[in-house]
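Chapter summary example.
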Amino acid sequence: MKMSIEKKNKLIYSGELILFSIIFLVIGILELVKVIPLSERFQLIFKILTLVGASWIVADFIWSLLSKKHRKSSPLMDKIMMLPLAIYLYSYDIAGFVYPRSYEYYQIGVPMAFFYIACAYLFQGIYHYYKPIPAIVEAIEEEIIEKEAKENPQEESEKKEENQ
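The structure predicted for these 164 residues follows.
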């Protein structure tokens, strides 16, 4: 039984999101139970990277609000869903820079961010299977056009001649 192009593309995109969700969940659990220890260097790198990441989340959200072209290709719901994470990361990182924190602060705080990301990606993976993002719909349409062109090469050459 052959799978339709639409279903295949939706499965690939949703599968990627769900896979990322599982990866973030596993990493969060491993950090929470101290299988992955959080060294001093990791704590500093985590704070710097998450400040940059939180800034990107906010910038991407603002970009989506201001640019109709960007809003068309990426759903606003996905951007809004990540804003609480950005707020959490800003407050968590700034507090970590201002006051020295114990190891337990990071052992609980870092996995919480990973758990939130895992939940968000799991939701997006399921949601976008049933309601694909515009970029996926566009890719599906392009793939259908390419498939039709391969099946009917004579029609395609006639269309090219008409356009010229």
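To summarize the output: The helical segments are 5-32, 40-66, 68-73, 76-98, 103-130, 134-151, 153-163.
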